[in-house]
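Quiz preparation item.
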């Protein structure tokens, strides 16, 4: 993923925490020049690199969404919500999205605020795409409901293929695999995670 907006959010969050680019690089194991290029929107960011950056900046990956509303807050935001967050409706055109074309995955945020007790996302994986599962940094519970296509979910050594209308509920640390199992259509699903940790 590449983008000036994403880079600006990384830099803004880093500065909010009083962290230098060199310090962020050291904590993530990434190079300082890479962090600089990310912040200037000059390089692609893999999902794994973004996960490392988000973790060290104490923010959800969704905080760095490519089309994020200005009022999207980091997951640790705890102040009283501004009035604009009182609107619980999110129109399709307002959904923040996070896309990784190289992985064939796109996430759309279905909740307005990341400081609530849960987060909901719409996920879309292209046929033939690999594993996009992520071990989260805290204990979570997750629910996945498949809307279209087929989705393979790995939980430890178990693998389940879910088709439209199928659902699964699991502890987040059990998740080992999310793969599009369809040959000719995207797998589309809704995922709800509590507490917000993506």
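Solution:
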């Amino acid at each position: 993923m590449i983008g000036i907006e994403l880079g600006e959010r990384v830099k803004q969050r880093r500065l909010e925490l009083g962290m230098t680019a060199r310090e962020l690089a050291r904590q993530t194991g990434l190079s300082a020049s890479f962090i600089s290029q990310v912040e200037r929107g000059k390089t692609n960011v893999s999902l794994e690199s973004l996960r490392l950056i988000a973790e060290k900046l104490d923010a959800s990956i969704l905080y760095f969404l490519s089309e994020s509303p200005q009022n999207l807050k980091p997951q640790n935001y705890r102040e009283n919500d501004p009035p604009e967050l009182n609107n619980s409706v999110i129109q399709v055109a307002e959904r923040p999205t996070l896309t990784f074309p190289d992985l064939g995955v796109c996430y759309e945020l279905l909740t307005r605020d990341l400081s609530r007790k849960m987060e909901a996302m719409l996920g879309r994986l292209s046929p033939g795409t690999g594993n996009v599962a992520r071990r989260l940094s805290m204990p979570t519970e997750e629910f996945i409901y498949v809307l279209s296509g087929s989705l393979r979910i790995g939980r430890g050594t178990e693998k389940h293929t879910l088709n439209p209308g199928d659902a699964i509920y699991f502890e987040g640390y059990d998740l080992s695999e999310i793969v599009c199992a369809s040959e000719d259509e995207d797998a589309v699903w809704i995922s709800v995670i509590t507490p917000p940790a993506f």
